[in-house]
Amino acid sequence: MRRLSYRAVDLIVKAACRAAHLKESYSAHSLRAGYVTEPLARGAGRASVKRQASHASDTMFDRYDRETDPAADNSSTALCPPRTCGPRSPSYLKSLFSYQ
Q: Does 52 map to a domain?
């Protein structure tokens, strides 16, 4: 039994997307990037995902990790912890008038 070529997988993915009436464009490459992104987002170990995806370098592996939640583990969240600032909080309203 022979494995599917990259082109064959790409045609299968594109046909499935058309059949599902998806507006986004996906490809075989999208599956590879998704395979790296999803396990990492769900807490899988970086080394195990890298090994399974057969990435030789960290640089290439990092290119396939498509961050799905930019707010997760974002340093800017430390500037405004939940429920302590924002448009309706007293500290936010006070800050609007504290500049001279």
A: yes
